[in-house]
Each structure stands twice: as C-alpha cells, then as structure tokens.
Design a protein that fits this description.
single chain; 245 residues; alpha/beta; Metallo-beta-lactamase, Chain A; seven-stranded mixed sheet; 7 helices
C-alpha cells in the first residue's frame, strides 16, 4: 500500500502562539494534494514550505473562523495574479461560500466577482454523509464549537488510508465516531488542563483517548500555555512536521 503524507504547514492557534502559522494541513499522495483548513497565514506558510498554492485543487474547511478559513481570499487572489488555471474547489459546512465571499469583499473589494482564468466552486458538506472532494471521500461530523455556522470534524479517506481531524471543539462523542479505525487522528488541544467552552484541553483528550480507537494521535492548535507545558503521552505537531501515514 502506498504511503501518503500529511504536512503541518500551520499548527498554531488564532494568536500565533509560539510563532506558529495558523491551521493548515496538506494531505498528499499519488492522487494529488488536498488542503485541510486554510488559516489567515496559510499563503505564507505554503510558500515558506515550497508548496505552490496553484497546484492545490481542493480545500476542506472545518469551520468558519479566520484562523481556519481566512487564508482563502489570499489564496484565490494569488492564483489570479499568478495566472492559475487549475480549478479550485472549496468544501466546508453550510455558509462557507457566503463567508468566504464576504471576507474577500472586506479585504479586496470587487475580488469575489472579478473574472478569473480558473473557476472557484463551493461544495456544502452535509453531516455524516460521505462526499467526494477531489481525491478523497470526506465525511463531516458536527462538533461543539460556535462559529456562526456549523463546525465540523472530518474523516478523510484518501488512497485507502484514513485521516481524522477534529477542527476546534469541546469533547463530543462525534470525535470518537470520526476517529474510529483511522490511521491518524489530528486533534486540537488548546490548553494543557484548563477547560474552556468550545475547545478541547489535553487532559480531557487524554482521558478519552481509549474511546478514539485509532492508530496514531497528534495534537495541534496549541496555546502558549499548552506549548510551555511538559510533553505528555500524545505526540505534538509543529510547523513543517511531515507525517507518513
């Protein structure tokens, strides 16, 4: 079975804790690249890692907060000025098109309707309904995170491997459903032990880890407090980390 790779282009939180880029993961293999989340710093993260944004045809967004989707206006504009021709498909929860286009108009008025050499299409993902997004089959699971629209965790099946991703959320049984049998589960752990609404802390994740029934767990989206805490049983992501699945 062929190996696929998951690169943490950005493993940080909304506030750049630890000097890290915001959420942005690149899943890649023979079937071609798929971007998972695209925080506001993602265009810089891609270019620093030597990834051509115009080579990415598919993006999956977990929820509609700027540190998870705010890089899309810049990615689209970069494609426009670099003479991109590859179509771009953006998949996410209900409301993704409206939020992305509104952000484009705030940042670059007129940019959402300008003529381009490449189409930008949106796919609205329904909860617990497998959907084909380019090279992957993506199943969304509603989670506990307020963002003005549904927030999702994902189960992504790609080249006979399965990667699960929590997005941002408090603990919910949906995470166990998304991660069940996955080769890799990438899970946000914002604080080490402090419980706050809509976010998962490391202690709670560790307490529920046996319920996840997956192969490997890597935590991401860590606050300054979490980054400063002693290393624990669960592996931690860092910007530039490449995982072979």
């Amino acid at each position: 079975m062929a190996e696929i790779t998951l690169t943490f282009l950005g493993s940080g939180d909304a506030f750049g804790s630890g000097g890290r880029f915001q959420a942005c993961l690149l899943l890649d293999g023979r079937a071609g690249p798929l971007l998972i989340d695209c925080g506001a710093t993602s265009l810089v993260a891609m270019k620093r890692a030597g990834v051509d944004p115009s080579s990415i045809g598919f993006v999956v967004i977990s929820h509609l907060h700027g540190d998870h989707f705010g890089g899309l206006p810049f990615m689209v504009l970069d494609g426009q000025f670099s003479r991109r021709e590859l179509p771009l498909v953006i998949a996410g929860p209900p409301g993704t098109r409206e939020r992305v286009e509104a952000a484009m108009e705030v940042l670059f008025p007129g940019s959402s309707t300008v003529a381009r050499r490449f189409p930008v299409d949106f796919v609205e993902l329904a909860e617990r309904t497998p959907s084909t997004v380019g090279p992957a089959t993506v199943t969304a699971f509603a989670v506990d995170h307020a963002s003005g629209a549904p927030a999702y965790a994902y189960r992504i099946e790609y080249e006979r491997k399965t990667v699960a991703y929590s997005g941002d959320t408090a603990w919910t049984r949906a995470l166990a459903d998304a991660a069940r049998g996955a080769d890799l589960f990438v899970c946000a752990a914002y604080y080490a032990a402090k419980a706050i609404p809509y976010h998962l802390d490391y202690g709670t994740l560790l307490a529920h880890s046996r319920e996840l029934s997956c192969g490997r767990i890597i935590v991401t989206h860590m606050s300054a407090e979490m980054l400063a805490s002693p290393a624990g049983e669960i592996e931690r992501a860092y910007d530039g980390m490449v995982v072979r699945v």
